[in-house]
Design brief:
Elements lengths: L1 H20 L10 H98 L5 H6 L4 H113 L33 E3 L2 E5 L2 E5 L2 E3 L8 E3 L4 E8 L11 E8 L2 E11 L6 E2 L4 E5 L10 E7 L2 E3 L7
Antiparallel strand pairs: 1-4, 2-3, 4-11, 5-10, 6-7, 6-9, 7-8, 8-10, 8-11, 11-12
Helix pairs in contact: 1-4, 2-4
Length: about 425
């Protein structure tokens, strides 16, 4: 785009020189060049702004992608911590069930001890109430030493049995208590691990919350930059149109002061000199009237071909403005496709002028119109280039009548 604008400026200066050489100075306003310079400066600033915004957008999106990746990793870690916490909760529930079971066993053992103790007490109490002989009486009333030994052994067995029963119950209860303590120790360890995992999860959630805030900020910045980019794009379009309008106005002013001539004096490129329109068509490259290849059969390499138009070229012509030879409707604008009738022309514009007349402009560097657009005679439609089957910068220009190519020079003298 910038190259096309620079080429337009060069073309305008060339036209101004031609008019000066013919003594027709004063066609454009005195402030025209400064006005164009201001427009071009604005355009350059907007282009730089758009490039800066594009770079900022890229940086923002790169940072956003990295932040999103970081957040996803945090999400995975939080999920893993939660799975571990769930597993520990299941272990704690198992420990709680075991503890309840051991507590029930302890309570049962305690009840058994209390019951056996009560039975022992009841037996002693009954012996006392019924007046059963004391141990001393039993000894004194023994008939002989053998009887004494038998009675003493009976007392010993009774006492030993009661004592052993109670001691066994106490031992069982102590064993259950130790098992319960081991379970409680395991539960405390799991509970501690759970507490640590929950703290880890809380820390990760805090990091994720901060990551969400950063992402939200980056997304807001991205939306703002996109809006800024759209605004600058619209401003650039306005600047482009302002420059196009300037060139159109400048060209019309030059046309008025040349009495309708589209060529003028020497173009600095040698050749056939200026061409004057017969009235139907304007010369398509105002800054250059040098025809380097005419209409008709010509030799190329080891053979020949029929050249359906004329080639207009000179040194430094690349980027020079091309204008519509007559008013009409654009029927082709852009890269020519083989099989469409425009293959090999590169960037090509074709205009239907009505009455069976059409013109074609081939090998353009840039195209400034679009399909279906109405253009006026002398309106800039693009710039000279070397696209398609081209050996160098030039404009291939054709005039067709009812679809058949005619010698364009028939309309120029």
């Amino acid at each position: 785009m910038a190259g096309r604008r620079i080429a337009k400026c060069a073309a305008a200066l060339a036209l101004a020189f031609l008019i000066f050489a013919s003594g027709q100075v004063g066609a454009a306003p005195a402030a025209a060049s400064s006005s164009l310079g201001s427009l071009r400066q604005q355009q350059s600033q907007l282009e730089r702004q758009q490039q800066q915004i594009a770079q900022q957008l890229k940086t923002l999106r790169d940072n956003k992608a990295k932040q999103l990746e970081y957040k996803n990793k945090l999400d995975a870690q939080i999920t893993n911590k939660q799975n571990q916490i769930d597993n520990l909760n299941r272990q704690i529930a198992g420990y709680d069930a075991d503890i309840r079971e051991k507590e029930a066993q302890i309570a049962g053992k305690q009840r058994s001890i209390e019951a056996d103790t009560e039975k022992f007490k009841e037996r002693v109490r009954a012996m006392y109430l019924t007046g059963e002989a004391s141990n001393l009486e039993i000894i004194l009333n023994a008939k002989n030493i053998m009887d004494l030994a038998d009675k003493a052994e009976i007392l010993k067995v009774i006492s030993k049995h009661d004592t052993a029963l109670i001691e066994r119950l106490k031992s069982d209860m102590e064993s259950v208590r130790r098992e319960k303590e081991e379970i409680e120790t395991g539960r405390r360890a799991v509970t501690q691990a759970k507490s640590e995992y929950e703290q880890d999860k809380k820390d990760l959630a805090q990091l994720e919350n901060e990551a969400d805030k950063v992402l939200a900020g980056l997304s807001a910045d991205e939306r703002q930059k996109v809006a800024d980019s759209q605004k600058v794009r619209e401003q650039r379009a306005q600047a482009d149109k302002a420059i196009d309008d300037w060139y159109q106005s400048y060209y019309r002013s030059l046309q008025q002061h040349t009495g309708g001539s589209t060529g003028g004096g020497s173009n600095g490129g040698g050749g056939s000199g200026g061409y004057v329109s017969s009235g139907k068509f304007a010369w398509p490259v105002p800054s250059c009237t040098n025809v380097t290849s005419g209409f008709g059969r010509r030799n190329i390499g080891g053979g020949s071909e029929f050249h359906k138009g004329v080639d207009i070229s000179r040194g430094g012509i690349y980027g020079a403005p091309i204008v519509a030879a007559d008013s009409g409707r654009v029927i082709q604008a852009g890269m020519g496709v083989y099989g469409s009738g425009y293959g090999g022309y590169g960037n090509v514009v074709a205009i239907d002028h009505g009455g069976g007349y059409s013109t074609l402009y081939g090998h353009m560097a840039s195209v400034a119109v679009h399909d279906g657009q109405q253009v006026t005679k002398g309106q800039i439609i693009g710039t000279v280039g070397s696209t398609g089957q081209s050996t160098g910068p030039h404009l291939h220009f054709e005039i067709r009548v009812n679809g058949t190519a005619q010698n364009p020079m028939n309309w120029f003298g």
